[in-house]
Amino acid sequence: MPFPSVDQVSDKTFDYVIVGGGTAGLTLAARLSEDPDTSVVVLEAGANNTDHPLITKSSQPALHFGNSDLDWAFETIPQKHSLDVVQICHSDWIAFRIYRGKGLGGSSSTNFQCWTHPPKEDIDNWERLGNPGWNWEMFEKYANQVYTVSEPRFPDGWKIWDASKPYGNGPLSVILPNIPKIDVPFRETLHKLGIPQAPAPYHGNPRGANITLSTYHATSYLRSSSATAYLLPNIDRPNLVVLLSALGHRLIFDDNASSNLVAKGVEFSCGEDKTPRKVYAKKEVVLCAGTLKSPQILELSGIGRADVLRKIGVPLKLELPGVGENIQEHQIFGMAFELKDQATNETFDILRDEKEYLRQGELLAEGKGLHTIGVTNLTYMPLSAFCGIERAKEIYAAEKKKIAEELKSGLYPPGLKEQYDLLLEVLDPERPEGHPSVEIIGFPGYQSFPKAPIPGKKYYSLCSAINHNFSRGTVHATSNDPFKNPEIDPHHFEHDIEAQNFVEVAKFLRKLAQTAPLSDILKLEYNPGAEVQSQEDLEDWIKKGSITAHHTIGSCSMLPRELNGVVDANLKVYGTKNVRVADLSIVPLHFAAHTQSTAYVIGERAADIIREASTA
């Protein structure tokens, strides 16, 4: 049904109550409501932004970040290992911001639209951590239910498309957008320096230079999201209800339950009216509020670490020490190079000019211009590809020694040793081929910190992300007030291996920029600049200039309970009868890919799990 009023939902009963209308939440809601006899309500804290120009137009990275109507803009506590001086979006902010989509579609409506798949081994490792069925075969099955890709238009000599392999038959439109002209010399230079073409980026092996698909509509080039793909085509279903501006507060439990907790419903508020309201669940409550909100809802419901709940004055109903723990993130930095005047006009920098922004909107209507290009060049390689095997072995050995010493000291919580064992296994530099743990991105525009760009200049940014961090963070409620955001502490650079990896990759990026044909179009290195040369200076700049990639996972990890797990392999919260979590917070160990496709897979998988349980 079209979006109802709060009175049409308040005190009503549905089979399933889903908290969060984001990437996984709307996927789950659409699949569950395929059965006309199953009623579903989604509580979404944001608005219907599906026609907002900052959402619908593709290829306008970060222009909507910090917009309170579109973005949660969570803020971390100061990070002592990051020197506490990071400037975000070149404003006066001095703390890390983690940008998460607020509104229908969640972050699928606000992200950079990259569609990538993880390496097979990264997903198989979830099963090795004690989650039967969560493996590459599962991922590929559900990913193919999510997306449909149009035949790509590759530049001459670039075609890597293998039509004999499946590329999905789902509702989400995915295409290869127009490739920026500047990406051609970037890719040619990568190959010149020994980086191969990725053999199977969408079939479990992205090692090498990838040509990356994006979530665009095939003809209009507008954004494709869980809202446009899963919700809007089904909005008239009478058994599917989505309440907007509805903030989930806490779960309502049946006090008469004799053993496991039974959720009767959810307390929420709507819009500016903070009056608590209730909606009831006949079967299950599913949290899809994301890595940074789902644990807060559990804690405000009395589920989590006893000491955390004691501090915020919430009575303990169920002690689960893993709630809000095991946070993992992709960190990223960018080196910015000013382009020569004649190089190209195809950079996102020109969108900062209001007249040019309007002109590009007109070109989009003709299927032309900046809004039809994308971030198409992503490269995944082991660290040794950038710094050599001997230096990679030194960095790896230092981390392995640190972990061994800390294990003897008993510093690690349950479950962390098992994760580190897998990380050390996949990151071993002496493994054949090596694991693609480092990402390099050629970005047509300014994507670099902490310096601000010079108005009127055009840039090409060489960015890098570390995909398998050892540092582990936390997110916890600091108040029983649901309107107060939780405290987020990602513990950036707590393990030195992350800074050392970045320093070595930064050296390689400089070498890349100084090699033709890429060097032929670059005028100078602007950030960090030629004055930053020594190992120490590079490390200092890295710690000032790196930011979060907004790929946060792990706060309600899917692990055995004795390993600090929060949910089991069926996504059910331990100690409850009918509460599940289905978003990126359940991911127990990070992976070498952008997170969008995995969030969809979790939504699809959750739907099957819930449907199977309802008929058992």
From TrEMBL:
Catalytic site: 551 (proton donor), 594 (proton acceptor)
Annotated Glucose-methanol-choline oxidoreductase N-terminal domain ranges read 290-304
| Entry-linked PROSITE patterns | GMC_OXRED_2 (PS00624)
Instruction: Provide the family line.
Output: Belongs to the GMC oxidoreductase family.
The identity of this protein, by name, is Glucose-methanol-choline oxidoreductase N-terminal domain-containing protein
Q: Which InterPro entries match?
A: FAD/NAD-bd_sf, GMC_OxRdtase, GMC_OxRdtase_N, GMC_OxRtase_C
Q: A Pfam family name for this chain?
A: GMC_oxred_N
**Domain of life, per the record?**
Eukaryota
Among PANTHER family, the record links this protein to: GLUCOSE-METHANOL-CHOLINE GMC OXIDOREDUCTASE, GLUCOSE-METHANOL-CHOLINE OXIDOREDUCTASE N-TERMINAL DOMAIN-CONTAINING PROTEIN
* Alphabetic keyword roster: FAD, Flavoprotein, Glycoprotein, Oxidoreductase, Signal
Q: What molecular function does GO assign, one term?
A: flavin adenine dinucleotide binding
Cofactor section: FAD
Organism from which the protein derives? Tetrapyrgos nigripes
